[in-house]
Specification:
GO terms for molecular function: triacylglycerol lipase activity. InterPro entries: AB_hydrolase_fold (IPR029058), OBL-like (IPR044819). There is one protein chain. The protein is an alpha+beta fold. It has 2 domains: 1-58, no CATH class; 62-108, no CATH class. It has helices at 2-7, 63-80, 83-87, 95-106; strands spanning 13-17, 39-43, 49-52. A hairpin with a 5-residue loop joins strand 2 and strand 3 (49-52). The radius of gyration is 17 Å and the shape is globular. The termini are far apart.
Length: 108
């Protein structure tokens, strides 16, 4: 696929935000012959972006990464109440998203 993109001069980027599971699906799997490709732009929870070749926390359901992911989720919930002051009104989160975050912390 990467060869075809280069051949037709099509830029392709994968955007991944911190612990977001969606851009990691489907998982890289030799059995099902699937592998993510392209340039990956990874953003940490501070919205600092960098190009990476290997995605951090590739094994999303790893026991080793469960605690840091939960801690990160708590900090993101706290930030949801203040981010519109630092980043602007376009970042203000509504009550539904905040409640969803809280439910996600209680029932991962």
């Amino acid at each position: 696929m990467e060869n075809k993109l280069e051949e037709h001069k099509i830029p392709y980027f994968r955007f991944v935000y911190c612990n977001d599971m969606v851009p990691r699906l489907p998982y890289d799997d030799k059995e099902h012959w699937y592998k993510h490709f392209g340039t990956c732009l990874y953003y940490n929870r501070h919205y600092d972006g960098k190009f990476v070749h290997v995605l951090p926390n590739k094994s999303y359901f790893s026991v080793l990464h469960a605690v840091p992911m939960r801690i990160n989720s708590v900090f993101e919930l706290i930030r949801s109440f203040t981010i519109h002051y630092s980043k602007g009104p376009g970042y203000k989160e509504g009550w539904f998203l905040r409640v969803s975050r809280m439910i996600g912390l209680v029932i991962p």
